[in-house]
Amino acid sequence: MKMENKRFKLWALLLCFATALSACGGDEDPTSTSAAAAVAETAAAQANGSAETSAVVAADLPAQAAYEEEDLAADWSAESPTAIDLNAEAGPVRITAAGTYALSGKLSDGGIVVEVSNEEKVRLVLNGADIHNENGAAIRIVEAEKVFLTLQEGTENVVSDGETYADMAEDAPNAAVYSKADLVVNGTGSLVVQGNYKDGLSSRDDLKIVSGAIEVHAADDGVVGRDVLAVKDGSLTVEAGGDGLKSTNDAEEGRGNIAIEGGAFVIDAGGDGLQAAASVRVDGGSFDIVSGGGSANGEAHTDDQAWGKGMGARQPAESAAPSATATDAVSMKGIKAASHIVATAGTFSIDSADDAIHSNGTIAIGGGELSVSSGDDGLHADASIVIEGGSLVIAKSYEGIESAVVAIAGGDVRVAADDDGVNVAGGNDGSSAGGRPGVDTFAETGDYKLVITGGALIVDAEGDGLDSNGSIEMSGGAVVVYGPTSAGNGALDYNGSFELKGGTLVAAGSSGMASAPSDVSTQASILMTFPQTQAAGTTVRLEDAAGNEIAAVAPTKEFRTIIVSSPEMKLGESYILYSGGSEIVSFEVSQSVTWLNETGATEAQSGGPGGFGGGGRRPSLGERPTPPQP
Q1: Cβ–Cβ < 8 Å for 152, 129
Q2: Can you give the pLDDT at residue 91?
Q3: What spatial distance separates the first Cα and last Cα of the chain, rounded to whole Å?
Q4: Beta strands in 171-324 (DSSP E)
Q5: Average pLDDT for the chain
Q6: Residue environment code for 166-196, b if the CB has 16+ CB neighbours within 10 A, otherwise e
């Protein structure tokens, strides 16, 4: 695989996986978001099982939000404002002409109503205002070209509604701040929005937050922009019974996006933290997201087969009480999008009951610092996941990284998983397709790929470490796998081939289902099966005949087998393997994959039933061998 544009210009990134792994170039302008290139190749029709039928899926990734000069302007002193003392008002305050209106004081009931022509603009300056409407939206924009909600510097402002509205029809206003026109929030003051009925801050058109200290409490969704929800800066604290930040337009192409350039976000959502009908793009900011009560509230998982965690569809524990997700189809993901999720920068802390980051299409990470804990998958994308930079720590998950295509070209990735660390398979997550959360339908065969060309990947998995229902290709980077201790899983598992051409690979795990890279590999590797299980923390060191260290690792869990491959390993050269400071075996590398036990090179794995030699995959579903006896 050839990676174009090593700098992360994801909106112009093209990953091509052809049969011969040839380069696939393009003439698109790398600075043009409208010419955004494909994030990854996915499988097309698989007639006769030929990989040549694969196709590149191109998609326009979301552009950064555009801000006009007037959106950024919060100084209203020269605009001949009309001052409104809310203390002197009774009932709704109606604004029917364009202009600037400075609101101060307290309006106990009735709210503010803006209704001008769709070619006129209105600025509402909240200058120490407390606005409440018991029977409807506290601020309601019926019609305008655009409305600016300016938070005056040094002021504290409150907007709230009641628990029931006089008009509760489906298309009626449903938020404490509700706009049918473009809405821009700017200024450096503070605003507390109390959405007691349903949503907090909502626009049926564009919603752009430029600045300000905003706090939203909502019975349902916190902050909603139908066509786009864009944030440039400021602080946003959201407590929502439903979704935290949301964009909802799924009917018009190019809309329904969330675009964030910066800001500080603290989101506690009963549903999704961020949810986009189309795409999410993040180019900066800090995010502290808890969704669905956090990973501790995730649905219980158990194996549908006693033999091998990572080899079948996962099922919720029969003894577990039905969760809100299962009974009410509530999505409780950290960040979710229907098409694409792109992160080029930012700091993320996500604790989610369901997937931490979930896309029905693609996920691409080119920078930033992400730390996630998930009650299900750390990252899940139906089509592809590309990681090209930044740091990603999946501290807790059922499966760590899951997609039909996973490409790691850079960055620092660390995964802890109760099942598979990296899972490459077909189908999609049932929680995104209207099914019961936590259920994945995986095809046994297909053009599914795990491709590693750079970066660092450390996996600690109770199931398979790296699991591909298709192939694995590695030509660079560094991979360390602390694999399963149970005999029904392996540090490596693939249904097709594992072609190893470069990089450093160390994978330790159990022996029952151990696999080595394929014989077609051009870089040498070894798979050592120890006569006894090695204790956690035991240092394994590989040296050449001259005593030079090739690799050294101290697995964090007990292990029976270890795989080592390094560009420094050469055919025809001799090596010595040590464990716990003692020499275990000396040997010569005479082929691409050398299988070892304590006596030297063997033709097959020597771990008893369930082992297979020749440098290959373990049996596919339906070929599962009998588990080794204790």
Answers
A1: no
A2: 84
A3: 42
A4: 175-179, 182-187, 190-195, 199-203, 206-209, 213-218, 223-225, 228-231, 235-240, 245-247, 257-260, 264-269, 274-276, 279-291, 301-302, 315-316
A5: 83
A6: eeeeeeebbbbbbbbbbbbbbbebbbbbbbb
